[in-house]
């Protein structure tokens, strides 16, 4: 009976020991997720860093001291009271974007990194805002953000932290200054509205004047074109009249030439004697003398013409005698 009881106790102890060993082994297995790091201490001293994957620790000897998240963190800080260079009290709240770059430093170099960053942000902001007027503070957020990020990044580097970005969310001045700023903005909006209205009227007047100018230019060009066309028409008419007159003169000259040619042909066909020709010449001179001309050009052979006249008289007297005899 005692032997059976002893065996049962031994079996129970062995079973418990086996269960303890299995549980210890299972608890010694660590699976590290992506973007996380396990810091392992051995007998109270930092031993190694476990990155993503499966790892096995030595029971009792090794333990996980901390788990560090390597992703970017966003921390919003409460509004802080600050005073500008022109002695205006304002409230500023900010947000910081940071991430752990050195898990060992972050674990063993700083106790509370979030509180340290918040206090450092507040003191740095006070120094920066104290150098600026209220108007500069309201309009220089980018400059303040850049300077603040530079200071924080340098200070937190020894803590294994990198500050990626710092943003000032709100700048709240006192109530009376807010009212004054609101009145100023209202006056500025009214002024801008008046400027826009005046600018619109100016542009409208310019467009109207430009339209009148273009209309006058087009009208002047139309009148010019009409005058050019009228002058061109008159020129063409004068050319046509001159061509008609020239054609008429040419036709008359051609008709006279044809008549003279016909007379010449007829005279030539009749075969007149020199005496007849001279008599015809004298008749022509007589007709010329009857005109309005004050000068008469007499041919150089006047002696022969006188002889012709004498012969003509003699011929006329002979004809008269013959007529009387009959």
From TrEMBL:
CDD domains: SPFH_paraslipin. Residues 27-185 form the Band domain. SMART domains: PHB. SUPFAM superfamilies: Band 7/SPFH domain. Gene3D superfamilies: Band 7 domain. It is found in: Membrane. InterPro entries: Band7/mec-2_domain, Band_7, Band_7/SPFH_dom_sf, Band_7/stomatin-like_CS, Stomatin_HflK_fam. It comes from the Bacteria. The chain crosses the membrane at residues 6-26. It is a single-pass membrane protein. GO terms for cellular component: plasma membrane; side of membrane. Keywords: Hydrolase, Membrane, Protease, Transmembrane, Transmembrane helix. GO terms for molecular function: peptidase activity. GO terms for biological process: proteolysis. Pfam families: Band_7. Belongs to the band 7/mec-2 family. This is Putative stomatin/prohibitin-family membrane protease subunit YbbK. It comes from Candidatus Carbonibacillus altaicus.
């Amino acid at each position: 009976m005692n032997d059976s009881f002893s065996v049962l106790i031994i079996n129970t102890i062995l079973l418990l020991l086996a269960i303890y060993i299995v549980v210890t082994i299972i608890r010694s297995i660590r699976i590290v997720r992506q973007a996380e790091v396990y810091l392992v201490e051995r007998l109270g001293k930092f031993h190694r860093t476990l990155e993503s994957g499966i790892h096995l620790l030595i029971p009792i000897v090794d333990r996980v001291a901390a788990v560090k998240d390597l992703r970017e963190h966003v921390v919003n800080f409460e509004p802080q009271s600050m005073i500008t260079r022109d002695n205006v009290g304002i409230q500023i709240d900010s947000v910081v974007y940071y991430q752990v770059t050195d898990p060992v430093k972050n674990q063993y170099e700083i106790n509370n990194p979030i509180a340290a960053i918040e206090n450092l942000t507040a003191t740095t902001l006070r120094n920066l805002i104290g150098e600026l007027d209220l108007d500069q503070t309201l309009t220089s957020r980018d400059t303040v953000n850049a300077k603040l990020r530079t200071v924080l990044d340098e200070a937190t580097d020894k803590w294994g932290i990198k500050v990626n970005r710092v943003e000032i969310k709100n700048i709240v001045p006192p109530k009376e200054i807010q009212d004054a700023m609101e009145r100023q903005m209202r006056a500025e909006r009214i002024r801008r509205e008046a400027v826009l209205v005046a600018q619109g009227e100016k542009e409208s007047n310019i467009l109207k004047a430009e339209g009148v100018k273009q209309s006058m230019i087009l009208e002047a060009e139309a009148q010019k074109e009409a005058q050019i066309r009228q002058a061109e028409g008159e020129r063409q008419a004068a050319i046509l009249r001159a061509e008609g007159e020239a054609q008429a003169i040419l036709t008359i000259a051609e008709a006279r030439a044809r008549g003279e040619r016909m007379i010449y042909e007829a005279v030539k066909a009749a075969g007149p004697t020199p005496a007849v020709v001279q008599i015809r010449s004298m008749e022509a001179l007589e007709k010329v003398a009857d005109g309005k001309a004050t000068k008469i050009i007499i041919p150089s052979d006047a002696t022969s013409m006188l002889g012709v006249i004498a012969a003509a008289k003699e011929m006329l007297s002979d004809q008269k005698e013959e007529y009387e005899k009959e």
